[in-house]
Amino acid sequence: MRKAVRFFRNGRLIERAEFSPSTTLLDYLRLEERATGTKEGCAEGDCGACTVVLRRLLEGKLVYEPVNACILLAGQADGCEVIAVEDIAGEQLHPVQQALVDHHGSQCGFCTPGFVMAGFALYHRAEQKSCSRAKVVEAISGNLCRCTGYRPIVDATLQACAKPAADKFTRDAKEASRRLKKLADGKDVFAGNEKQFFAAPASVSSLAKLYLKHPEATLIGGNTDVGLWITKELREIPKIIWLGRVKGFDKIESRAKEVRLGAAVKIEAASEALARIDSDLGELFRRFGGWQVRSAATIGGNIANGSPIGDSPPALIALGATLELQRGAKNRTIPLEKFFLEYRKQDRRRGEFVRAVTVPKLTKGEVFRCFKISKRYDQDISSLFGAIKLRLKNRKIAEARIAFGGMAGTPKRAKTVEAKLKGLSVGDRAAMEKALVSIEQDFAPLSDMRASAEYRLKAARALLLKAMLEIAGKPSQLTRAFGRRADAHAA
Ligand SMILES: Cc1cc2nc3c(=O)[nH]c(=O)nc-3n(C[C@H](O)[C@H](O)[C@H](O)COP(=O)(O)OP(=O)(O)OC[C@H]3O[C@@H](n4cnc5c(N)ncnc54)[C@H](O)[C@@H]3O)c2cc1C
Ligand code: FES
Ligand code: FES
What we know:
Number of helices: 19
Low-confidence stretches: 487-491
CATH superfamily of the largest domain: CO dehydrogenase flavoprotein, C-terminal domain
Number of strands: 20
CATH class of the largest domain: Alpha Beta
Radius of gyration: 23 Å
Number of domains: 3
Bound molecules: flavin-adenine dinucleotide, FE2/S2 (inorganic) cluster
Strand order of the largest sheet: 2-1-5-3-4
Largest sheet: 5 strands, mixed
CATH architecture of the largest domain: 2-Layer Sandwich
Distance between the termini: 48 Å
Structural class: alpha+beta
């Protein structure tokens, strides 16, 4: 057992044994280190002004992950090197910074440290994968600028990342790997005491024991939901158990007929794995928060949080996913849809945690579509999310599984519509439209700031019709702003 959280900053080892468990990384940097280059804008993960980069070892390779320091806890930096905006320049500005100067990419400058750090993360990703304008736009979609305008920022970042030359981090890579390897001791971390602690168990059995002993503790994956309880609701959270170090929890297993994702698999990693089932899933996860959110948020957190507008549950329910739960030494597996009982009430007992989710691959004759509707195209929570899986036989619907988010207090299946679609030909538009009217028997959505009930019902019907038209053979360019990923984001 280790009693302190440990991470590096600027080559310096930082060990913290006594701290308030809900201290954010931003507060640690600004208030304790007085490193005030990193800014606080929204304090809820939306603006990116607080972006810092975590450099860590992933399967023996160094990775650079941009995160929102305002909602990441300082304890979650365990095992990493924290890179803040002050750390990246040498005797000269970093190429990402210099390009922003050259392109006049900063006016008031408040957002600039965040853009620099998102660009810095892309710079290091670009060392392995080529860069493009589309990739720059994707990388900075979690950053807001209110005065400069995005064109010069995109131009600058593209110029810097097009041909990234070695910087001091590339040159220091071997030494950094050696340092980080030393931090990976595989021990349980417990910093604090029985009344207040930040714990990071290293194995499933340690997690199960600790959570049974402290079932009132708050589990966190990426803290992208819980972080807002701290910064917006000003909640004190005395006992925190972070799942980011549990061995195997970040594992993705692609088997012959299914993909199993450990509860702490990050959305960024889940995206790549699930896009191989269907390209719509890749597009869904590409639009999940910004890069900073996806680099921290986990699939387990997205499910366990129980939000009616979480994006992954409807998609995974339509695909027929199952959920593994564990309490003490006991495991159980349930269909994902049965996990959601009513608004914010899940089938999870005291001391029980989500261990993994298993998603079946599509089989012969099966087709899938999913659609996210949000006010902003990128980095926005859904107003409505629809997913549909059909099993076709001779172009007739043998079976339909349809699930929606944003239409009820939980993610929910449209069972009446499913029954009405059975036996219809996918090309028969008139019969489809008639069947889809029955969506009103499945849902009585609410009106809220994101959408009115009437809009939700109309849009849900339209999404299903769009799916049918595409499946019947209409090219997706005719039905979508960007088409299916395979034929759209070729850049
Ligand atoms: C700016 C921003 C944009 C966002 N955009 C989207 C979006 O586009 N789509 C979307 O769906 N969501 C979005 N979210 C919400 C959030 O990012 C997701 O719900 C995310 O997947 C939560 O995962 P997490 O690991 O960060 O959860 P956490 O905040 O760590 O935990 C969330 C809840 O789940 C519980 N929990 C976590 N892991 C487990 C487990 N293994 N077992 C039991 N309980 C567990 C926690 O106790 C807590 O109650 C956004 C959030 C922000 C701040
Ligand atoms: S301060 Fe806005 S994302 Fe952190
Ligand atoms: S330069 Fe002012 S907000 Fe971006």
